[in-house]
Amino acid sequence: MFSFLRTFTFALVAVAALAGPAAAEPLKLVLLHLNDWDKMESAGKVASVIAAEKKAAEAEGAFVLVTFGGDLISPSLMSGIDKGAHMIELAEQVGIQYATLGNHEFDLGDEVLKARVAESDFTWISSNVTLDGNPFPGVEGPQIIDMNGYKIGLIGLTTPDTTFLASPGPGVAFADYTESATSAAGAVKELGADFVIVLSHGGESLERGLTRSVKDVDLVLGGHDHLARIVYDGRDMTASSGSQGEFIAKTVIVMDKVEKRGKMSLVWSPSFDLVATADVTPEPTVQAQVDEYTAALDRELGQVIGSSGVDLDTRRAAIRSQETTFGNLVADASREATGADIAIANGGGIRGDTLYPAGTQITRKMVLTELPFGNTTVKLEVTGKQVREALEHGVSGIEDGQGRFPQVSGMTYSFDASKPVGQRILQVLVHDQPLDDNKVYTLATNDYVGTGGDGYGMFKGSKVLVDKDAGGLLATQVIDYVIQRSTISPTVNGRIKRVD
């Protein structure tokens, strides 16, 4: 595998010359980085910040690169309609130049991703994603950018967990993250790169390890965990911007070539900032485009279908760690629609990251914003043993906020997160009766989880009573559930208990 990767990365290295000021020593490089930006609302503010930062940097004679760390085309309400095309347009308008693939780039299938990549004026790069053993169509390998005598290497990496976090086709492969970085960084170094940057969609644990374990990597601009973070301790040098354009991660590298013992060596120093966008005046042209998209959505989906008598919690931290009112709503709606004994809804399928106060008027747009993936509900026959395995898996990534966390209906469970993974579930009741490992139950879940998505492999091969073609859209089932009741008041009633 290692030798294959090395050949692969050599074959894909591209060299570009970046226009800029006249040659000067030392070189100042300003990197403006975004990641996990799939909702359009902040685009005007993002565009305004990037334009101002570029203007200031170029006035000082600095070079500027605008980069992206993955998760652009999905999930969002608008992406469910145009398959992410609007985010490609907005990314171009705000000035992104280089991007790596995130796991959500694969939510809508390989053909959609191929189309979005082909539409992009900016460059997508990857050193560990292939399709049928070849580079993913339209995605380039490592880049070398020549900046007035300095060569900057750029590498793209995507978490191998994408295999079960999204919906890549059977021919898509994600090579080992660290091995791919080692190979690609070595390739650009051999071609003369002075400074090597990784655009990563791997999360903090993978990314912080790169600058320690891969000697040729100097800086990692990351994504995937939605954290706004800057780390620099003399060895680790990583930065990411949170999510949804709330910050721009700004990294400034000042580098110079000095002679030491008759040989030229590179010396450099970094500085960092997280530039907030919240109070920025939006760039008018980009904001006008966002307003146009929003108005179209409101016309189509703004009808009120009911109201909530309680707070509805879809905040990311809550939906991936504890019982919530909205999680109960989704699980109840899918169980009622299918007549199943029990239901499991993965927290990562709920995307609004919002706390709606009691009295909120519920619209179709709100439901589709929360459930943007277009999943259908399937009904399976499963054993109690499979259910127990599913719950163990569901709570196994709670420390990292993994989207596999199970919201449930028709059953209750308790767990102790201080125990080892695989030994955390303490008690499971189905309709107030202890779960029987040998008994067969009917389960409602979305088609993604039902076919092994989010790591729920224990459901693969189960007898299918209602398949994804026959099952209704999960969002439609929730909409129907609200319409039938007019006012909903789901409560947190002890379905999930954490005892540690």
UniProtKB/TrEMBL annotation:
<keyword id="KW-0732">Signal</keyword>
<dbReference type="GO" id="GO:0016787">
    <property type="term" value="F:hydrolase activity"/>
</dbReference>
<dbReference type="InterPro" id="IPR006179">
    <property type="entry name" value="5_nucleotidase/apyrase"/>
</dbReference>
<keyword id="KW-0547">Nucleotide-binding</keyword>
<dbReference type="Pfam" id="PF00149">
    <property type="entry name" value="Metallophos"/>
</dbReference>
<dbReference type="InterPro" id="IPR004843">
    <property type="entry name" value="Calcineurin-like_PHP"/>
</dbReference>
<feature type="domain" description="Calcineurin-like phosphoesterase">
    <location>
        <begin position="32"/>
        <end position="226"/>
    </location>
</feature>
<dbReference type="Pfam" id="PF02872">
    <property type="entry name" value="5_nucleotid_C"/>
</dbReference>
<dbReference type="GO" id="GO:0009166">
    <property type="term" value="P:nucleotide catabolic process"/>
</dbReference>
<comment type="similarity">
    <text>Belongs to the 5'-nucleotidase family.</text>
</comment>
<keyword id="KW-0378">Hydrolase</keyword>
<dbReference type="GO" id="GO:0000166">
    <property type="term" value="F:nucleotide binding"/>
</dbReference>
<protein>
    <submittedName>
        <fullName>5'-nucleotidase</fullName>
    </submittedName>
</protein>
<feature type="domain" description="5'-Nucleotidase C-terminal">
    <location>
        <begin position="304"/>
        <end position="460"/>
    </location>
</feature>
<feature type="signal peptide">
    <location>
        <begin position="1"/>
        <end position="24"/>
    </location>
</feature>
<dbReference type="InterPro" id="IPR008334">
    <property type="entry name" value="5'-Nucleotdase_C"/>
</dbReference>
<dbReference type="InterPro" id="IPR036907">
    <property type="entry name" value="5'-Nucleotdase_C_sf"/>
</dbReference>
<dbReference type="InterPro" id="IPR029052">
    <property type="entry name" value="Metallo-depent_PP-like"/>
</dbReference>
